[in-house]
Amino acid sequence: MAIAGGTCVLPAHAGDSPAWSDRTPDYWNAHPDQKHRMLGLAALQEGRAEAARMQFERAARHADKASQALMAQLLWEGRGVPKDRALAYAWMDLAAERGDPRLVAQRELYWAELDAASRERAIEEGKAVYDQYADDVAQPRLERERRRWTMVAVGSRLGSPGAASVCTDQIMPRGKGAVTGLGLCGTGVDSAVHYADAKLSPVEYWRQRDLETARLFGADLSQAQPR
Fold this sequence. Notes:
Blueprint: E1 2-4, E2 7-9, H1 25-30, H2 32-45, H3 49-60, H4 65-77, H5 85-95, H6 101-113, H7 116-133, H8 135-154, E3 165-167, E4 188-190, H9 191-194, H10 202-216
Antiparallel strand pairs: 1-2, 3-4
Helix pairs in contact: 2-3, 3-4, 4-5, 5-6, 5-7, 7-8
């Protein structure tokens, strides 16, 4: 995350995230961390800050650190939610949970801006935030979804890819609030290839997500103006 003038510089677009057409509907169901971050970024680009906040919160429930940082930014600026800088600090502290130096630096900038009373409240607010969104509860939540939807996609209770295919030709959701119906099946690819990430260990999966989050940093959040 780049930092300029004390303001957190965060992605205002999907950037290096996979496009809808690059993944199947079942993939997005299995990866709510990525799905809701992408929907949140799209809403933010359209100036729908409140809708973006809702999507980022859903992604945050599945341990998406970029979305947790974006939640902090929206709270800090009062976009799509009443301004609450103590709570914003709690969210940025959570986003920095894995020690990303950019997120840690931003957390410290937030802390420096808080007065004594706000700091005390930030610590109290952080307890509730961590109870719901910290890695020790949010990562298992995501892992359950990955396992469940991978089994659905490959048609096996054991999660074995077999010879099943999954659809890849889909229709993008459009219009305000278009979240459901993420695609209609057209062509297909072999599930063993498409769901290769299902074989990743949790450690490797989260390492890849951290790298993806790092690649997303660089675009100024303020480019998307609220309506």
